Automatic annotation (TrEMBL):
<dbReference type="GO" id="GO:0034237">
    <property type="term" value="F:protein kinase A regulatory subunit binding"/>
</dbReference>
<protein>
    <submittedName>
        <fullName>AKA14 protein</fullName>
    </submittedName>
</protein>
<dbReference type="InterPro" id="IPR025663">
    <property type="entry name" value="AKAP_28"/>
</dbReference>
<dbReference type="InterPro" id="IPR053084">
    <property type="entry name" value="AKAP"/>
</dbReference>
<dbReference type="Pfam" id="PF14469">
    <property type="entry name" value="AKAP28"/>
</dbReference>
<dbReference type="GO" id="GO:0005952">
    <property type="term" value="C:cAMP-dependent protein kinase complex"/>
</dbReference>
């Protein structure tokens, strides 16, 4: 059986607000198969005006706090962009992209399943780097 990639119904351009965008990113994150020990917070970063679109930038910052180390040694960020096209009708859904802080690869939630291993790799690499210094 083919694996189903979980996605959410995204709001339309005309119903979009910065707060709604953040809520929907949280909704998307809640569909990801990530162990409950991972904690994150998300935030709106900026609005970017382009010729044929408006882009809204957000970040979700992830960590693995434990009882012995409540402040994680390193964190991993996932950057989201919500794009509102000026060329499409305002009844069209917004487009959503994300990328990991260590990568230039841009992913679409409907095309690519998020993997917890990506967060682990970023954090392991940061800790290794810090230990070398």
């Amino acid at each position: 059986s083919k694996h189903v990639i979980k996605n959410i119904p995204w709001t339309t351009a005309k119903n979009f607000t910065v707060e709604k965008g953040q809520q929907q990113i949280e909704e998307l994150i809640s569909t990801w198969d990530i162990h409950e020990s991972w904690l994150h917070h998300s935030e709106f970063l900026e609005e970017e005006e382009l010729k044929d679109s408006k882009r809204y930038h957000y970040r979700a910052c992830w960590g693995l706090p434990t009882c012995r180390k409540p402040i994680p040694r390193a964190t991993a960020s996932v950057y989201f962009v919500i794009v509102i096209s000026k060329l499409k009708p305002d009844t069209a859904p917004v487009e959503v992209f994300y990328r990991l802080e260590s990568s230039r690869l841009i992913r679409r939630p409907e095309q690519c399943e998020f993997r917890e291993k990506w967060l682990q790799d970023i954090i392991e690499n940061k800790i290794l780097c810090a230990e070398r210094l």
